[in-house]
Here is the input.
Amino acid sequence: MLALLLLALAAAAVSWGVLQWQRASRDAATTAFLQRHWAHPIAAQGEPPQRFGATEASLAPQACGSCHVSQWADWQTSLHSRTVGPGLLWQLRTFDQANGNACLRCHAPLAEQRALTALERGWPNAPASAPPDYVPPDLHRQGLVCAACHVRQHQRHGPVPQEGRPQPHPDLPHGGYVAEPAFSDSRFCSTCHQFEPDGRRVNGKLLQDTYEEWRNSPAAAAGQTCQGCHMPQRRHLWRGIHDPETVAHALRREITVRRLDDRRIRVDVALTNAGAGHYLPTYVVPKIQVSVLLQGERPVLNRRLATHVIGRAVDTALANEAADTRLAPGASHPMAVETTAGPGRWQVVLRTEVAPAEHYERMFAEMDARHPEFDDTTRALLHQAWQAAVAARFRLPDTVIEVPAQVDEPVRVVAN
Ligand code: HEC
Ligand code: HEC
Ligand code: HEC
Ligand code: HEC
Ligand code: HEC
Here is the structure.
């Protein structure tokens, strides 16, 4: 009996060990793939296989989109298709090639994009000949293109196919593809959304720490990856701080209004990061302002009772941090105010205003003032970028609550 029990225990230990070993080797394979895949600078694709037709060989997102219709449609609505906008372009005009390429590593990482940018900028190491047929002449303006994430040496790499999708096979277009679990791993994104430990810090904290924030979050513990939230059903959406619905879902606002007596009321607000698998927001760039307003029957009685800004404020030189009021995953910030509100009808309004590019609004304004020597093209691009940063601001729908007439009958409303 005892021998049987020991045997069973030993078998369990062995199979547990095998599981651990399998997990460790899968993990090592993912690490090795990502090191190769995101080894910078990314090498040129080289000559496409002879059997490739022109559309199969092309690095243009439109070409991929002629077959992968839904990914192309989604990608075009995403910020990944706009990583080369006026905000990057005016700065590239003031940089030499080495500094410019450092930006392109995340904003337009293919060798073919670097080459076209060098041609356009007149940088020294520009290619001598015209780009090959499979490189469209505007590839460097198209941002984070499909091929940057999926194509190396003309070989397609993609996630492990979902049920019902074709397994990799050489007879498929573009010679099939290599299925890699790494595409569904959060580390796939960290190459651009996480600084190395020796990267730029302000007040001791990295400027970009999204992967590490996620790694320590309840979302990570529950197995929810970056892709799980930002690419639901593998859709190429990447919605974030620029999207009102995504922000409304991330920021839970719980408001309680109570009458204390016939002259005074009290408002309690709890702001919670309920939906972001990292700090809300993760970068220094965006700011979210939450205000509590009181409005009476006559507009003159409108009053701002309290304001709280969520975000990490650093100066434009990236030297000092003025405040860091970001919300860790699951964390809450309380606001409480008591004020006079006599008899009559009163409404408490909770207003949420989002400035997704607040840091850039300040930085672009300062650069405009500080650099009278910029040429007309550079200044026009800078102004365009500045206007776009301001235009990105939006307001979530107000939450309006009638102040109760009775003491001891608090009203509680949750916006999420
Ligand atoms: C002529 C049509 C065609 C063109 C052009 C094309 N593909 Fe494909 N691709 C396919 C087909 C068919 C499959 C088979 C699997 C599927 O449909 O998901 C496939 C598979 C893939 C996969 C693997 C999907 C998975 O489940 O992992 C990726 C990634 C991919 N293509 C990326 C690209 C990219 C990037 C481009 C452009 C640079 C491109 N393809 C151009 C037809 C095409
Ligand atoms: C490690 C990757 C990485 C590098 C390197 C990088 N960026 Fe970015 N950049 C990002 C990410 C990620 C965002 C999005 C930040 C956000 O949404 O808050 C961004 C946003 C921006 C924006 C705002 C969006 C826009 O298009 O207006 C500008 C401008 C910008 N970067 C310029 C630069 C410049 C200039 C350099 C080089 C000095 C550079 N970046 C280097 C990753 C990078
Ligand atoms: C920022 C990197 C990135 C870019 C840019 C990108 N993809 Fe993807 N793609 C991914 C990741 C990551 C996955 C897997 C997501 C997952 O596993 O949840 C994926 C999955 C896919 C799949 C498999 C879909 C499925 O349902 O199995 C196809 C096909 C594909 N991408 C094509 C494209 C095309 C076409 C473009 C350009 C229009 C593109 N991708 C742009 C990262 C990217
Ligand atoms: C549990 C869902 C969830 C997970 C997991 C998640 N995110 Fe997010 N992410 C959000 C939501 C919601 C927002 C919008 C609110 C905000 O900006 O924080 C967001 C915003 C962002 C932004 C916008 C910029 C900013 O300053 O907030 C970036 C970039 C981003 N996520 C990248 C990532 C990356 C990379 C990972 C994985 C390491 C990841 N996210 C994991 C939900 C998630
Ligand atoms: C090659 C670099 C690169 C990779 C890989 C990459 N991103 Fe991005 N991502 C960027 C840049 C650059 C931006 C900024 C776009 C802009 O504002 O111009 C961005 C923007 C975003 C945003 C939009 C945030 C907002 O401001 O609303 C989200 C969300 C995001 N990325 C998530 C992801 C996820 C999830 C992955 C992994 C599947 C990923 N990214 C992989 C470079 C990258």
Remarks:
- The mean pLDDT is 94.
- The pocket of heme C (ligand 4) is lined by residues 186, 189, 193, 210-211, 214, 219, 224, 226, 228-230, 240-241, 246-247, 249-250, 275-278, 280-283, 285-286 (CB under 6 Å).
- The longest strand covers residues 264-273.
